[in-house]
Input
Amino acid sequence: MIDIERPGTRLRRLRRSESIRRLVNETDLHPSKLIAPVFVRHGEKVVEPIESMPGVNRYSVDEVGSYVGRLWDAGIRGVLLFGIPGSKDEMGSQAYSSDGVVPRATAEIKANIPSVLVVADVCLCEYTSHGHCGVVKEGQVDNDATVPLLAKAAVEYARAGAEVVAPSAMMDHQVAAIRTALDDSGHRETVVMGYSAKFASSFYGPFREAAGSTPAFGDRRAYQMSGANSREALREIQGDVDEGADIIMVKPALPYLDIITKARSRFNLPIAAYSVSGEYSMIKAASINGWLNERSAAMEALTSIRRAGADIIITYFAEQAANWLKEAS
Ligand code: PBG
Output
């Protein structure tokens, strides 16, 4: 039996006050580690709320500069751009058009806030009429017909000023093709952040409403990964590393923390975790109903993602988290 009167280990000693709790805190969050996803759309003077993601809007190109300025003032240094074009087609041609929404938004943002890091998502799903992430042939997404289009899009975004391109289509060899196309077009310094282990997830639901990218038929399980597989996730990540990715990513974050931890112990590249739309909307919905405290639930989730081993967190809570961190410091 332990004699509680005698000195010995008492873990509560280190929890007695806020100051000592902070002293022994193992996992820090800082706004410079957060990237805010930003939806940019066609049109003018539009700031349009996304119903399934309270607090998140779609911005027309002319409005996006001032929004990113606000993020910058809060301490956010990186934005991840998703484009919502005026028209969609079978080939997703607006994704790789030089006057598409993402190149135009990039120029607008850079003109307003030159130092902000612009990360451009590279995928076709927001641009295709069928909502799949690539070109469809005979009812299947054709890998090798899609990859050159992704490479073309990446070059357009780099040309417009994006420092980072982030291929999210889950096509095999997309990173290699993008790296080669960037180098061949004089964009050797452009960073590639691969969505290396991207799982087919229900938690993308609100995003698909935001981007109008729900597949018109079938689902994405023929290219995105099964949530049951962690060894395969490490093979996916290894593939991106071998193809020249500078940063690797695990997505979603909360249901896949074990994958982040495994990737952390195996790879020495910076690891990003994408805390996706459903992770955001769950906390928002519960807090709007008074069932969760938004601030503490969101900060707990972000801290757990850092603790699992992520260096960078892509989160729709970025601006709020940055403001909360400022208040707490
Ligand atoms: C695909 C893409 C998706 C997300 C980011 N990039 C959607 C999908 O795969 O259906 C989801 C992000 C989120 O849910 O927040 N280009």
